[in-house]
Amino acid sequence: LPTGGQGPGDIREYQLASCLLDKVTQQTTIHVWLNRDALSDSVLSSLWERMNREGLKDLVMYDGCDTFVDFVQIALASLLLVCRRGEEILGFIWVTDLIPDVRAEAHFCFFKQAWGTGAPGEAGRLAIDFLTGPEGFGVKVIHGKILDSNMSALEAVLRLGFEVVGHYYDGKNDLALVELSGRRSSKLKAES
């Protein structure tokens, strides 16, 4: 996995043939797997190390994912979307609490080199289309939690059409609850 010359891994470690979806757009390619089995431990380790190196782990994994083992357990239980440009991984989205035709909880991490490029928004739109569309899971509601202090992440999901539906304190962090309903995602598709 190329990470600016740092970290192990290689794009060949992907089992692209096992993708549920493989979409190429102007800026990015997004791959979707039902779980992390398509990614080697060295790729997951690189993602974990890069989150730590870029200071993103505490912004993204604020709810008790403190070790690489915790991260692997999350990846094992998730629908995983990896966004890349060429061979460089720009970020990833993982989906938990997935009930087809009903709901999904989405989480994301985009590395600093992707910030300001439009790639995270493009990947977010592809993920929304896949989760809500008939070729994907047809979910009616996508929800998530974002640290109140993470204004750039909050602004990014608001641009995708999510709405803040509440705030709460989880005993450690102040969180914004965000939601995108099927009605709102249909309206966004019609406008674009």
Descriptive notes:
With 192 residues, the protein is an alpha+beta fold. The protein has helices spanning 41-53, 57-60, 68-76, 119-132, 151-159, 182-191; strands spanning 21-24, 29-33, 79-85, 88-99, 103-110, 141-147, 163-169, 174-181. An eight-stranded mixed β-sheet has the order 1-2-3-4-5-6-8-7, with helices on both faces. A hairpin with a 3-residue loop joins strand 4 (88-99) and strand 5. The protein is globular and about 35 Å long. 33% of the residues are buried.
The gist of it:
With 192 residues, the chain is an alpha+beta fold. It has six helices and eight strands.
Secondary-structure blueprint:
Blueprint lengths: L20 E4 L4 E5 L7 H13 L3 H4 L7 H9 L2 E7 L2 E12 L3 E8 L8 H14 L8 E7 L3 H9 L3 E7 L4 E8 H10 L1
Parallel strand pairs: 5-6
Antiparallel strand pairs: 1-2, 2-3, 3-4, 4-5, 6-8, 7-8
- Report the structural category: alpha+beta
Shape: globular
Order of helices and strands: EEHHHEEEHEHEEH
Q: What's the total number of strands?
A: 8
Largest sheet: 8 strands, mixed
Strand order of the largest sheet: 1-2-3-4-5-6-8-7
Number of helices: 6
Distance between the termini: 34 Å
Q: Helicity, in percent?
A: 25-40%
Which regions are unreliable across 5 or more consecutive residues at pLDDT < 50? 1-19
The percent range for strand residues is 25-35%
Mean pLDDT metric: 77
Work out the radius of gyration.
Answer: 16 Å
Give keywords.
alpha+beta; 30% strand; single chain; 192 residues; globular
